[in-house]
Amino acid sequence: MPEQTLHTLVRRLDAAMEAPPESLHDAVTGALAEAVARRDWLRDEQQRAEAEQYARHVLHADPQGRYTVVSLVWGSGQQSPIHAHHTWCSVAVYRGEISETFYAANDGAPVPLRTVRRGAGTLSFDGGDAGVHRIANPAGDTAVSIHVYGIGAAEVATGVNRVLG
Question: Which residue among 54, 62, 66, 157 is least packed, with the fewest CB closer than 10 Å?
């Protein structure tokens, strides 16, 4: 059954890539919502944290390079750098809780504006223009989030984020 959930997610994301651009948000978040409604489809190694920093596990790479599905595993206290995206991205919390802090980008250091806590099943979508943010697991158990990036797998490590801090 776990393979079926990922297969269904991929099939729905493929359809989203063929749909009109104005429907991308709804199509991608709908596909992710359905997938994270089930909490039993990620294998143990896809939920494994690393001691030094958050872990990134590629779950699916679209052969045409249109998108990549990744699980990010956040140990207690781990966080991303402050960054903006070069491409669209949708995030769903699979397990645990993460926080997302939004920043004002100015000529100096980014200034925090607000923080949103996101529990299992919550979704967000950034069309590539949502601004600057940081994702973190401020405390507690390991958290897992599923990210769909509008970029090929070869570019996930370097082409998604514009790091600011």
Answer: 157
Contacts of residue 7, defined as CB under 8 A and 6 or more positions apart, other chains included, come to none
> How confident is the model over 84-133, as pLDDT tens digits?
877 899 999 999 999 999 988 777 788 899 999 999 999 999 887 667 88
**Domain membership of residue 118 as a residue range:** 2-158
CB 32 within 8 A of CB 71: no
CATH code for position 106: 2.60.120.10
Q: What is the pTM of this model?
A: 0.91
Supply 129's token pair: 């223009």
Instruction: Supply the angle between the helices 2-18 and 24-36 in degrees, to the nearest 10.
Output: 180
Q: What is the pLDDT of residue 127?
A: 80
C-alpha distances in Å from residue 109, one per residue of 26, 28, 60, 129: 33, 32, 35, 19
Domain count, the chain: 1
